[in-house]
Amino acid sequence: MSRFLHESELTQFGSPADRRETFGRKRSNAQPVVQEPTVWERIQATPIEGVKAKDMTGEEQLRFFLSRLSDLLVQPSEKFPPQERALIDDLAERVTKLVSKDALVALSERLIAQHAMPPALTKSLLLGEEEVALPLLRSQMKFPDPDLIAVVKSKSEAHQVAVARRENLSAAVCEAIVSHGSEVALRHLLGNMTSQISRQSYVLLSQRSLTDPSILDLLIERESFPADIAHLVFWWCKSKERKRIIERFSCQRDSIREIIPEDFLLALRDQGGPSSFAARMILKPERLPKEDIETALDALQSGDHEAVLAILSEGAGIKEETVAQILDDSGSEAVAVLAKACRFGRVRFFRLRQILCDLKDKEWDELEVQNDIATIIHDTLSTDRADVVLRYWDRTSREVTD
After folding, report:
1. Residues whose CB is less than 8 angstroms from the CB of residue 172 and which lie 6 or more positions away in sequence, other chains included
2. How far apart are CA 332 and CA 168, in angstroms?
3. Which of 126, 162, 131, 165 is nearest to 143 (CA)?
């Protein structure tokens, strides 16, 4: 005859597995792990069921109402017609403005757990206090761009940082952070390699780096940072950053020349305009005769600057204004690139640097410059890569920001 065993009988009877040893050891009598209830579960455990509305406080009534609405919103979408779901969402959003912060924190946790995103309610929570919004923003849930942009424009730095650290941010959200975000949020955005920063945002960031040099390292290391903007930023970077720009944003062009005939490139160059620039970016640089280099150095030393600009402009294939910018630059990194592209050689490169130091009333120490960054650039950069850098520098600021 079957019957239920009494608890004492179960204890006395036990099972063989309970009594025998396993591999020479007795089984431990470990107690089951008891998990702490979530905030939402604690709220749900409040003894409201069976209590009439007149016996509840105003907060309890609102909490009960919100809990029931959220019960409906986390149901599969096919459970309700879209119009009814929209009504529930709208009502829940309105109630969030009346309940306590603890209730909203619990509601955020529940939406994350259920991966539910009712539009109006979600936006209200995203625009809530940090304790309410940050768990949502740090989750893997996908929110509409307009909601994230609203958070960036109107909420705290902590909100902005949470947005900036989200994966695969769109160009529109990135632009909002660039325009409205704090410095901390901006650094998190630049460090987020999955963010889709647009060219226009990069232009704004390059302008911002004029007054905030601390973002330059982050900008330079981004794979999507446009090369032409990087070479524009070069002019206000420090020596170490300049070297990194030259290393990252120059290249050899042999593979391109293999498939495009030289006579075709020369014809494009002679047309002028954008086609000329495109052709010069690919053409192999012509060697500047040694006698022309010596003539240019002598002219520079004697103060005939017009002759220097004319010779180097013709030899390097760049505008005289670009040559003047290189020679006037306070550092020597740009001069190193020009000297390498024009094949000065190390001795003439040092002579050029010494003459420029004298013209700028700077002290010349040949031992000191033997291994400085400018000399390392000159010694390690190929002629072809140096010529590419010159082509970028030869573009005007207007062209770069188009």
Report:
1. 145, 149
2. 39
3. 126
**8 A C-beta contact, residue 331 and residue 242:** yes
Please tell me the distance from the alpha carbon of residue 186 to that of residue 167, in angstroms, as a whole number: 15
- In angstroms, what CA-CA distances link 293 with 308, 309, 346? 9, 12, 13
Task: Using DSSP, state whether 377 is helix, strand or coil.
Answer: helix
- Mean pLDDT of the region 217-223: 94
Dist. CA 327–CA 330, nearest whole Å: 8
CA–centroid distance for 316 within its chain: 36
Asked if residues 164 and 186 have their Cβ atoms less than 8 Å apart, the reply is yes
Classify the C-alpha dihedral 31-36-40-43 as positive or negative: positive
Query: Residue 181 and residue 191: Cα distance in Å, rounded?
Result: 14
Residue 26 — left, alpha, or beta (φ > 0 → left; ψ -120 to 50 → alpha)?
A: beta
Token representation of residue 238: 């420090």
In three-state secondary structure terms, 38 is coil
Separation of alpha carbons 217 and 235, rounded Å: 14
39, 109 contact by CB (below 8 A): yes
Q: Is 237 left (phi over 0), alpha (psi -120 to 50) or beta?
A: beta
How many C-beta atoms lie closer than 10 Å to residue 244's C-beta? 17
Which residues are within 8 A (CB) of 192 and not within 5 positions of it... i.e. 6 or more apart?
Answer: 164, 165, 166, 167, 169
Query: pLDDT per residue over 279-322, tens digit each?
Result: 888 888 888 999 999 999 999 999 999 999 999 999 998 999 99
Provide the whole-model pTM: 0.76
For residue 85, give both structure tokens: 């779901």
Candidates 168, 233, 188, 167; CA nearest to 177 is 188
Q: Say if CB 285 and CB 341 are below 8 A apart.
A: yes
Other CB atoms within 10 Å distance of the CB of residue 388: 25
| Other C-beta atoms lying within 10 Å of the C-beta of residue 252 | 11
Q: pLDDT tens digits for 86-136?
A: 898 888 889 888 888 998 999 999 899 888 889 999 999 999 999 999 999
Single-letter amino acid code for the residue at 357:
C
Whole-number Å distance between alpha carbons of 334 and 356 = 12
Q: Using CA atoms, how far apart are residues 194 and 82, in angstroms rounded to an integer?
A: 34
For residues 373 and 240, the answer to whether their CB atoms sit within 8 Å is yes
Question: Cβ of 104: how many Cβ atoms within 10 Å?
Answer: 21
Give the SS3 label for residue 22.
Answer: strand
